[in-house]
Every structure is written in structure tokens, then in C-alpha cells.
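__Protein archive entry__

___
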Amino acid sequence: MKARRATANDACARPKIQVDVLVNNAAVYLRGTTLGASSRALRESLETNFMGALWTCRAFVPGMIHRGYGRVVNVSTDYGSFGRDSRGPPRTPSRRWR
């Protein structure tokens, strides 16, 4: 993941690249139950679903601010709001038991 992030950051740093609209639409989902998921699966889910969006914003938003224009669209699903059988992204149990 670190190598892919470095490559993306290098591409964004090129002077000719100007992004006016950033769409964060990457996601991975856990198979099975949240409580039964391995630490590695949980880490992969958080790295992609949350940190991926944060890293792309950090890479592109400074250029948008510098140019005085830009839009960020974070695409998500309501998959995380379903608590049935503790399946879904890592945040499911806390939503289910509120």
C-alpha cells in the first residue's frame, strides 16, 4: 500500500496535472463476520476505505486550493449501516448496538 501511495503522490506532484474534481470511489468489503475477521482483513478495509480517501484528498486538494477551485466527491454505500449478523465493514457492531 505504501508503494502505491508514493506512486500516486509522485503522479500528483507533476506540474501538468490539474484535478478539478476528485471522486473517491475505492472500497473493499470483509467476507464473513466483523467480529470474526482477522486483523489483516480489518486493516486492509480501513486502509482502503478510509485512509485511501484521506490520502487522495491530501494529494489533490492542495492544488485545488492553490487554483481557487475544486470539488471532492466521496462515494459510499449504506452497507456499513446494516448490522445483520455483524456482517459488513468494521464499524457495523457499534452502529448495531447503539
Notes: Residues 39-67 form the longest helix (29 residues). Residues 71 and 87 are 32 Å apart (CA to CA). The two ends are 33 Å apart (CA to CA). The domain at 2-78 is CATH 3.40.50.720 (Rossmann fold).
